[in-house]
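seq:
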Amino acid sequence: MNLSVDIGGVTLKNPVTTGSGTFGSGKEYGEFVDLSQLGAVTTKGVANVAWPGNGTPRVAETYGGMLNAIGLQNPGIDVFMERDIPFLKEQDATIIVNVCGKSTEDYIEVVEKLRDQPVDLLEINVSCPNVKEGGIAFGQDPKALYEITKAVKAKAKQPIIMKLSPNVTDITEMAKAAVEGGSDALSLINTLTGMKIDIEKRDFLLANHTGGMSGPAIKPVAVRMVYEVANAVDVPIIGMGGITCAEDALEFIMAGARGVAVGTANFMNPNTTIEVIDGIKDYMTRHKIQDINELVGCVK
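struct:
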């Protein structure tokens, strides 16, 4: 039975990775999960300098999921290279580094520092607000997305995965812009923008007012967007958004995703990624499928 998939020229032993921001850089989960068994570990967002993140409260539960306004708090690329990459290599993990920034120069600085590091793929988080363009996210304007993809691709040694925001009118337009800019693969969806109000305090529950919604409630939207993108461009896709079990993962794969990322479910069950891998194996055994790639995009 073959579970391996190719993402941007890199072979993952199976299609399952972690959702950025839900797994740290693996250390928090190392006692629960054998990281070498995952297709890859996708790290928390890493910027050129340390980011303090947003004020608190910055997490709220919602029906079928959660809102987060962490603000991409991270220690910066230098600490990440010194502390986290060696740990992941010791665990024999395939490494996807999520890169964030507030300007094209920020992204480029991180990508250049990672050129000689033993990491496998770079996932570029374009849901960050572009400070030079008045705060609109890079991933919400096709021209800005094309330009940053082109700039990052020119400097990156590793293949790049542009992570698409769902907070747009037409996700296929954004996918085409990223592929035209040179993206080797795409990941989607990032969180949907949401809000929660504390009716007793008559105020916003999150200090940031809005946050990114994730969890099972967004899965149907995510599956639809993956399907649309898979039928609009010809690059590998990592699908994500509300995956809690193998059945969820298989929906994304059948819609056209070659890889899947488990995110919010890790907070409730740290072993979800392993359970998803085992569940995919069981499905393939039951249906006498020898190669996971036979299922990719099988629903037309």
